[in-house]
Amino acid sequence: MPQWTLHGNGRTVEPGAVVKPDERLNWGATIAIGMQHVVAMFGATFLVPILTGFPVSTTLFFSGVGTLLFLIITRNKLPSYLGSSFAFIAPVTAATASQGMGSALAGIVAVGILLALVGFVVQFVGIGWIDKLMPPVVAGAIVALIGFNLAPVAWTNFQQAPITATITLVSVVLCSVLFRGFLGRISIFLGVIIGYAVALIRQEVDFTAVNALIEKGQWIGLPEFHLADFASPGTWSVIAMFLPVVLVLIAENVGHVRGVATMTTRSVNRQTGRALIADGAATTLAGAFGGSGTTTYGENIGVMAATRVYSTAAYWVAGAFAILLSLSPVVGAVFNSIPAGVLGGVTTALYGLIGVIGIKIWVDNGVDFSRPVNQYTAAVALVIAIAGFTMQWGDFQLGAIVIGSAAALLIYHLGNLIARWRRTGADDGGPIPAMGQLGGDPQDA
């Protein structure tokens, strides 16, 4: 059973101090913060199964189970909530449409197993090889292309109810700039609530499934489980389109660990390998029985930064609360009733934000886009993703995410090899050095 030391008086956090992972506040405060973590992740986590057609309750169940598994594998030293990863939306949508849910789940399982294997390597070898394989220009391109590849999906939903979609989109943007702190960080969740209210007024919500469950009195029940299908011939061609997702999950987990280490103690970085193993195990478990793939959640990093509480005790509460919430079929049916217009509005912002996260990786790492290798690494990958390039040999098909990711890796590494051999100066010369003051107008000496 995990043990925590009581922080101070158990009620407050002193100025300049933080509640460390092995500490906790009193149980009343800890439970409240744990429930706040569920609210923070909820807006993003429930959107993934809605967009992919997976059962919401099942995904919520495995996000809770995955969080508890993550805490166990990281030996209760790394605070994190595992929510649904947006990186799975594009491959799951394509796989479900062509081969069915079982094959899509098999792809999720494959990603989980590969991520766990990477975690074992990192645990024993270190993380330097990942930085060399996937430098900032490549990592940013892969994250960005996954978001931009989903743009047509957002438009398909948007045009079904343009007025509702527009109000939803405007609400998301307004909430992000209107509110401070926690409310500003859950702007997507608030946008969905406002959009749903508009859809109710416009009579665009279908409550048939919800009413049927209420009439049967099915307020409590187990989630709907589905098994991954590795037997169908088309499954193995589907799995290929999932593999680039591993690169995104690696970047997200490594970034999460480094973020927590910056705000608590550098020793947290030693948990990087275990974090990858844990997320891999959670993703494998979810995919095997009908849930969405998982990842560490930035929304919960925001909650920790706001509260200065990094106690893993809050995440045990959050995981348990998510599991309890998933045991209501009615709750799942309510979320499944969200109409296309609301989804179109929120995903227009959401998919764009995924793309912008990739661009932020370039900015934060000072990628030099005056170098041709960097230019073409990003340019080719993004156009492939946005246009939806595909390649097919018989029944085997590669989608835009696979092709774009492969293009980014090949152009970068082969381009650098040739440019350095020929000494043309086209290779990646490293980050751009900072010039002058950061921000504002130049000042006279």
Automatic annotation (TrEMBL):
Membrane topology recorded in Swiss-Prot or TrEMBL: Multi-pass membrane protein
Keyword line: Membrane, Transmembrane, Transmembrane helix, Transport
GO MF term list: xanthine transmembrane transporter activity
Keyword presence, Transport: yes
Gene Ontology cellular component list: plasma membrane
Transmembrane segments: 54-73, 80-98, 104-130, 137-155, 161-179, 186-203, 234-251, 313-335, 341-363, 375-394, 400-419
Major subcellular location class: membrane
Family of the protein in this entry: Belongs to the nucleobase:cation symporter-2 (NCS2) (TC 2.A.40) family.
Protein name, entry field: Pyrimidine permease RutG
Taxonomic source organism: Microbacterium terrae
Underlying gene: rutG
